[in-house]
Structures are given as structure tokens and as C-alpha cells.
Amino acid sequence: MHGDRTRQDALYAEAGTAHAPAIARLARSVEANPDQARDLEQEIHLALWRSLAGFDGRCALATWVYRVAHNVAASHVARGTRGVKLVALDDAELLAADDVEAEVGAAQTIARLHALIRRLHSPDREVILLYLEGLDARAIAEVTGLAAGTVAVKVHRIKALLAQRFHSGEEA
Amino acid sequence: MSDPLATLWAEQHRDAVPLDADALARADAHFRRRIRRRDAIEYVAGLFTAGVFVIAAILIPDWGVRIGCAAILLGMLIVLRNLWRRRPAAPDATLGAPSLAFYRATLVGQRDAVASVWRWYLAPPVPGMVLLLLAVLRSSAERMPLWTAILGFVLTALPVVVVFWGIHRLNRAAAHRLQEMIDALDRGEV
Lengths: 172, 190
Description:
Number of domains of chain B: 1
Number of strands of chain B: 0
Distance between the termini of chain B: 25 Å
Structural class of chain A: mainly alpha
Number of strands of chain A: 0
CATH topology of the largest domain in chain A: Rna Polymerase Sigma Factor, Chain: A
Helix content of chain B: over 70%
Strand content of chain B: under 5%
Structural class of chain B: mainly alpha
Largest sheet of chain B: none
Largest sheet of chain A: none
CATH class of the largest domain in chain A: Mainly Alpha
Oligomer: heterodimer
Helix content of chain A: 55-70%
Order of helices and strands of chain A: HHHHHHH
Distance between the termini of chain A: 52 Å
Number of helices of chain B: 8
Radius of gyration of chain A: 17 Å
Strand content of chain A: under 5%
């Protein structure tokens, strides 16, 4: 039992050190309220720590961390978005201009990105977040369970959407 | 990653660190205690309500009422047992599943819970309630005109029937909506 707890703590230390920033970003991207975002971040850490007691190494630790984090975040979103209209990546509403200025600061860009992510339904929300975290299509497919081809299509749409909304210069 | 947005994204919260494992263990223990306390409150509330029918059965010297109360008690015990058996399992085991599988399992769990709510939550006390109302009707008919007793019976039973029927219809609609979401997932419309 003590050995299990030691292994669990060691796995958590490794996972947390590598992915705490991504967890913080995930919590703040799906939850607009700062206090609730902090609570969600802690909730994800707690769920991750608990889940690692059953981690059997059948997938990479990073994949496990992203799965747990996104599943907790999705449950949080599901609790809070009853009645809120979420849309898909290819929804025309997402391309509609908001208060775009020619030049925006980094903070405003991130805020707009958060707002965009919060409007997406699952699993588009997970795919865009994992894309922003730098995961490739194969890794995103492993985390989400989507077919690799579906992920490739979604990533293509994400790039086009981001280029159009944020003028990032990335080729669609 | 060449997308400048992704670079900007990764600049956020770079200083975030994992939490202390002992603090997490304490938070976990606290969470489990809270769940146990919440469960206990629900069961005490159920037993308190059951106590009302026990007292009614003792105080009212009418065997029809007593049988009705006993049947309601039995129904309540069945509901409490069903609640215990259906209490949410620890989610830890499924949290490591791919997002889609986790989402589908969540939807299936919710669909099954609402689709069968009539059978495991609403139905068990119904025979007892019908028996109790019939016993009250028989007793009332001995002391007042039959039509007045029937009117009282209908006025008492109707709101209960309407509430039960409303809950049933709402849950059936919710189950249908959840099934549509599951079908869309299975068709790959995500």
C-alpha cells in the first residue's frame, strides 16, 4: 500500500512537473471566472493524482495526463453550459468578426482565443487546445480517441480559423 | 510548432507547478468524507420520512391505512436500496479513457439513469400510495357522502399523478435527447 502511494506520488511529480502549465492553461481556457478556474485547476490536479493509482502504462504518461485533464474539464463544462449554445469548428458564426482591431496586444489575443475556445463543443474544444499545446495529429488522436484522419481535418480547419480570426500568418 | 499563436499560448502560466502530494491526499480524504456525509444525510432524510409513515401506521387504527403505510415503507426501502446501488462509482477508473470514450460513457450512464427512473425511483412507492388513498377513501365514505369522498380522493391523487407523469415525461425526453447525442457520436458526427 505504501509502495503504491510512493509510486503514485512519483508519477504525479513527473506528470505535474511536465504538464502543470498546460493544466493551468486548460483550466483558464474553459472557465472564464478566475476563482472557478483556479478551483478547476486544483480539481484536475486532484483527479490526476487519484487516477495515477490506476495508471498501468498502457499509454504514455503524457497521453494519460491530457486525457484525465480534458475529461475533468469536459465534465466541468458540461455542468456549467446547460442552455449555452456551443458550436462546431466549421460554424460560420466563428468566422464573424468581433471587435477586431488592426493590432492587438498579446493579452487581448489570448483573451479572444479563450473566448473562441469556450464557444466550441467537445471534441473540437479538445482538439484546438491540444493543437495549441503543440501536440501532433497522432498524439491528439490518442488523447481524444478520434480517428487520425478526422483529427487531420479538424487541425486543418483550426489553422484556417485561427489564420482568419487572428491573422496569424499560418497557411490554411 | 510554427504557429505564432501556439507560441504565444505556451507562454501562459509557464511557472505553474504541481501541487504537494500530501496536500492532495488530504484533499482526497476530505472529499471522500464529504461524499459519505452527503450520502448519510440523504439516507437519514429517507428514514425520517419513513418514520412519518411508521407513526401514522401506529396511530391510525385502520388496517387499510396500516397496510398502505407498510407498502409505502417497503417502496421507500426499495428506493433507498436502489439509490445505494446506483450511487456514482469513483470516476478515477474511467478518467484515463480517450475523451470520446469518456464522453460516450458519460452520456450512456446519464441516459440509463433517466430512462429507468420510473422503474427504480418512481414506481416502488406507487402501490403503497394507491392502497393508502383507497383506505382513506373507504374510511371517508363511511363519514360523508360517497361523491364527496371520491372528490377528495381525486383532488388528493391528481396532483401526485400529475407530478409523477411530469417527471416521467421529462426523463423520457431527456433520455431521447441523450440517445440522439450518442447516435451522433456513433455516426462519427463530431
